[in-house]
Amino acid sequence: MAEIRLENVRKEFGKVVAVRDVSLVIPDREFIVLLGPSGCGKTTLLRCIAGLEQVDRGRIYFDGRDVTDLPVRKRRISMVFQSYAVFPHMTVFENIAFGLRMQRKPGAEIKRRTQAAAELLHIEDLLERYPAQLSGGQRQRVAVARAIAYDADVLLMDEPLSNLDALLRLEMRAELKRLLKELKTTVVYVTHDQVEALSLGDRIAVMRSGEILQVDTPTAVYDRPATHFVGSFIGNPPMNFLTGEVAADGVTVQVGSTVFPAPKRMPPGNVWLGIRAENIEPSPEPVADAIAGQVLVVEPLGSHSLITVQVGQEQVKVNAPANSVYRSGQPIWLTLAAEKIRWMDPQTGLALL
What we know:
Strand content: 25-35%
CATH class of the largest domain: Alpha Beta
Number of strands: 20
Largest sheet: 6 strands, mixed
Strand order of the largest sheet: 6-7-8-3-9-10
Mean pLDDT: 91
Number of helices: 8
Structural class: alpha+beta
């Protein structure tokens, strides 16, 4: 097992800064997810940890040991790629055992560890098959089994589920969570899928433009985003943001015609009020201290309906009970859960609390 420590890691490709002076500590046996949109630097950072990319600046440590300049083979890492990367001419058994053979492990140990990894992934009945005889999900299980059979200090996973269909991705996500809890190893997992990040990780590191904007538990990142970008990226639908005006005394905030108490004295001027769709209670009738709006779109989603509401010049997404009856053009009043509001500075995009 290993603690990973990154100190001011920077990686450039010509004039493009892919990773911008990132510092991060990943405790031993933690499952951390690097989350962000395409091009944010998450895969490049993972490849730096693996040794597949040489950093331009900064240091990388495994359990206090400086591995910055060590080749991949000396870092005791295993990696699962997006594209499965299984050998088509080898059986499932040979694929899983490949890393162990490269380590020149005894035959009995190779057989034992290969069988154990196959049983963990529920593919012990497929050991004599070739990849062409497997489904996409089964091939991904082979790739994961090969990584865990290697018994490395660090397991790195680069969007391992992105090539699977939605139903299989859901199944594999649950399997991965169970498996990695049993393995108790340090895992760095890259994805652009926020559902994967929220459901799998002990912590999430949200990245943008080569920087880590927030590192915290899934609940904290979802409920208390540190920046406007994090709030607008995490969640389906993303967090709503309404523009408010802080009074001269900094004690109240006016959003439209509705006045909210400011959680602490804030400088006069504009402020963003962030609120999740599930923390807004809609009503077809006027309600005291509610924000008035007009229904634009109603999307029935089975368990609930997602309503898009026009509030002044802005739009708000609201969750309503599945049996609610709203229609386009109808007036609607929105009551916001005050304790769930996230106040942010429009100039910097940073949370004020």
